[in-house]
């Protein structure tokens, strides 16, 4: 039997990364594990979150998977180095797509705006990333902690969400920016809504493409063709609640309908 590829996140955010993997690898089987007992991570202490991550990944490894994607920028910042040392299967992490965003705007002189959780933005890993690639000091960042909780509640109301973004961005000159980086895997759920708020010239990117490309490389996989099987994903959560699994299914269906 073909082993599954596991995706892990604090909640449903990592489904945005899984969704891209499913599009490119329809012949693979996946396991998605959400730490629904402890979501959101971005408002907790680093030590507390690290403990939750280690517990969840240990549960995932017991499922005999062939790789684990840490589909969470915060979890990657806090634990991916240790996880790679602990397990002998590929552990793929994520980071905000700051480097490609900076390169996209190098000639235009436009700035880059990063949305992420407060915990991600506070970590050395993020600050070192920005220092390494932002040679023109063109990167700004703001935390959007409430957006994770809205997403976990499957609250994708267009009017309320657009109003939320307008409040958060009210003090910024959006015409100065060329790219917005979604530095939390929950945030791409709101891409269609965010496009209605940002000026037309502003591009929106996230780290899922690079992460899936890295996954394919490490497993020696090429992009596949064919239809996705009906039961391509097994859903698990730290709570074990059936309603959590149903929420994950509904969120994945939302992505099928709304997320490019």
TrEMBL record:
Q: Provide the GO biological process annotations.
A: cell wall organization; peptidoglycan biosynthetic process; regulation of cell shape
The entry's keywords: Cell shape, Cell wall biogenesis/degradation, Isomerase, Peptidoglycan synthesis
**Per the UniProt record, which EC number(s) apply here?**
5.1.1.3
- Which catalytic reaction applies to this protein? L-glutamate = D-glutamate
Q: Which residues bind substrate?
A: 9-10, 41-42, 73-74, 185-186
Q: Which Pfam families match?
A: Asp_Glu_race (PF01177)
**Recorded GO MF terms:** glutamate racemase activity
Q: Which PROSITE patterns match?
A: ASP_GLU_RACEMASE_1
Question: What is the protein's name according to its record?
Answer: Glutamate racemase
From which lineage does this chain's organism come?
A: Bacteria, Bacillati, Bacillota, Bacilli, Bacillales
């Amino acid at each position: 039997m073909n082993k599954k590829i596991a995706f892990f996140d604090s909640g449903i955010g990592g489904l945005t990364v899984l969704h891209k993997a499913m599009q490119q690898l329809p012949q693979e089987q996946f396991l998605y594990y959400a730490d629904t007992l402890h979501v959101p991570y971005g408002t907790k202490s680093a030590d507390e979150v690290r403990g939750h991550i280690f517990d969840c990944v240990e549960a995932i490894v017991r499922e005999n998977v062939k790789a684990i994607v840490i589909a969470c920028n915060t979890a990657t910042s806090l634990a991916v180095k240790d996880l790679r040392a602990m397990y002998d299967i590929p552990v793929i992490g994520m980071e905000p797509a700051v480097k490609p965003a900076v390169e996209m705007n190098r000639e235009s002189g436009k700035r880059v705006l990063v949305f992420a959780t407060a915990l991600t933005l506070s970590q050395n890993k993020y600050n070192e990333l920005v220092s390494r690639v932002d040679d023109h000091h063109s990167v700004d960042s703001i935390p959007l902690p409430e957006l994770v909780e809205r997403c976990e509640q499957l609250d994708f109301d267009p009017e309320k969400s657009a109003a939320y973004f307008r409040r958060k961005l009210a003090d910024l000159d959006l015409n100065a920016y060329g790219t917005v980086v979604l530095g939390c895997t929950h945030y791409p759920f709101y891409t269609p809504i965010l496009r209605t708020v940002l000026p037309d010239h502003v591009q929106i990117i996230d780290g899922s493409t690079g992460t899936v490309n890295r996954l394919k490389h490490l497993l020696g996989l090429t992009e596949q063709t064919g239809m996705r099987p009906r039961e391509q994903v097994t859903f698990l959560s730290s709570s074990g609640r059936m309603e959590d699994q149903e929420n994950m299914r509904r969120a994945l269906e939302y992505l099928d309908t709304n997320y490019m």
